């Protein structure tokens, strides 16, 4: 029923995250029926992005340059390094405007069952970057998931011999969170790491 | 923060239906981090599809040929024409295997408030196709939405002078439907158009 090129397009649209066969078919029809010019622009945008955007050779975030703008920015604090799991996390933290140091982007998190160990995640490169002694503190900002916690834990061990402070982003009740709906692990963290308000 | 090409890719991914800025960013990162080869194949598939897939000159469904395979198939009943709103509906009906006539695909449904009238939807072309007298019955298979019903209603009036039978697909409780959860309009239709089981 489908023509070959239509089937091929549907199949390739399924490479996008969270796109199943029904959504892919809907996307294909939408592009062909209502967005033929836009579709060609999308194809060009994908090709351009793949050809020009690659990993920063220093922090492994995404950039069109050899070294990304954040790494090149001399105004930023050279002594604090924030370790995250993906470039999306860099975007999120930059968007919050609450960090002015530099980043190091891992390739996701440790997942031994999937054969993803320290090497695959890029931890040796991080340790090498720390070895020049310029960095005074590393902030472990891996996700607050089981895998992210395990990765943070591994990094604490791996950096134990280095003369750097190691911190972990705080866990607790998110902004707007109603205690009634917050899970018990989060409540436990929020109570354990409560802030004293009337003492230094 | 984003590079220009990254922003452009995110913007173009938003052309896809139901893709907002957050999803588009996630898709862009996924393509750049995990699917660089697949991304180029996707770009090629989009370009190929737009260059080779177009409307069938007879029924306005999508095809890579001048006239689509369904229109060319001499085994199919030439006397019954099923009128639908989009090529997706042709796919769905073909998938059900319950129709062996031919199709006519409108460009969506009538929507006077958006300036979409009979001309924009392609009704003159349908009437022209009916004028050669070969078609004996047209099945109105526009959606069971307010707009689809209005379009079907308009077509009944437009075809009143033609020597063709006009039918509308049945409305009622869908397979697996529990009466408790079926809306009252559907129940009304199901009761009004109930089938007699012990009479011819």
From TrEMBL, chains A, B:
<keyword id="KW-0234">DNA repair</keyword>
<keyword id="KW-0862">Zinc</keyword>
<comment type="similarity">
    <text>Belongs to the RecR family.</text>
</comment>
<dbReference type="Pfam" id="PF21175">
    <property type="entry name" value="RecR_C"/>
</dbReference>
<dbReference type="InterPro" id="IPR023627">
    <property type="entry name" value="Rcmb_RecR"/>
</dbReference>
<dbReference type="GO" id="GO:0003677">
    <property type="term" value="F:DNA binding"/>
</dbReference>
<dbReference type="Pfam" id="PF21176">
    <property type="entry name" value="RecR_HhH"/>
</dbReference>
<dbReference type="GO" id="GO:0008270">
    <property type="term" value="F:zinc ion binding"/>
</dbReference>
<keyword id="KW-0863">Zinc-finger</keyword>
<keyword id="KW-0233">DNA recombination</keyword>
<dbReference type="InterPro" id="IPR000093">
    <property type="entry name" value="DNA_Rcmb_RecR"/>
</dbReference>
<comment type="function">
    <text>May play a role in DNA repair. It seems to be involved in an RecBC-independent recombinational process of DNA repair. It may act with RecF and RecO.</text>
</comment>
<dbReference type="Pfam" id="PF13662">
    <property type="entry name" value="Toprim_4"/>
</dbReference>
<keyword id="KW-0479">Metal-binding</keyword>
<keyword id="KW-0227">DNA damage</keyword>
<dbReference type="InterPro" id="IPR015967">
    <property type="entry name" value="Rcmb_RecR_Znf"/>
</dbReference>
<dbReference type="GO" id="GO:0006281">
    <property type="term" value="P:DNA repair"/>
</dbReference>
<dbReference type="GO" id="GO:0006310">
    <property type="term" value="P:DNA recombination"/>
</dbReference>
<dbReference type="InterPro" id="IPR006171">
    <property type="entry name" value="TOPRIM_dom"/>
</dbReference>
<dbReference type="InterPro" id="IPR034137">
    <property type="entry name" value="TOPRIM_RecR"/>
</dbReference>
<feature type="zinc finger region" description="C4-type">
    <location>
        <begin position="56"/>
        <end position="71"/>
    </location>
</feature>
<dbReference type="Pfam" id="PF02132">
    <property type="entry name" value="RecR_ZnF"/>
</dbReference>
<protein>
    <recommendedName>
        <fullName>Recombination protein RecR</fullName>
    </recommendedName>
</protein>
<feature type="domain" description="Toprim">
    <location>
        <begin position="79"/>
        <end position="174"/>
    </location>
</feature>
């Amino acid at each position: 029923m489908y023509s070959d090129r239509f089937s091929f397009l549907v199949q390739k649209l399924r490479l996008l995250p969270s796109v199943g066969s029904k959504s892919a078919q809907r996307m294909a029809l939408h592009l062909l029926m209502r967005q033929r010019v836009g579709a060609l622009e999308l194809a060009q945008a994908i090709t351009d992005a793949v050809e020009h955007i690659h990993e920063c050779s220093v922090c492994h975030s995404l950039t069109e340059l050899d070294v990304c703008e954040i790494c090149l920015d001399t105004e930023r604090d050279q002594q604090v390094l924030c370790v995250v799991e993906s470039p999306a996390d860099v975007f999120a933290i930059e968007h919050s405007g609450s960090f002015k140091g530099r980043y190091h982007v891992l390739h996701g998190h440790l997942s031994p069952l999937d054969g993803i160990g320290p090497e695959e995640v890029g931890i040796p490169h991080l340790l090498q970057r720390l070895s020049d002694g310029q960095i005074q503190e590393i902030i472990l900002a891996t996700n607050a998931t089981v895998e992210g916690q395990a990765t943070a834990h591994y990094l604490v061990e791996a950096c134990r011999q280095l003369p750097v402070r190691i911190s972990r982003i705080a866990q607790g009740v998110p902004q707007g969170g109603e205690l009634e709906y917050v899970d018990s692990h989060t409540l436990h963290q929020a109570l354990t790491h409560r802030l004293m308000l009337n003492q230094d």
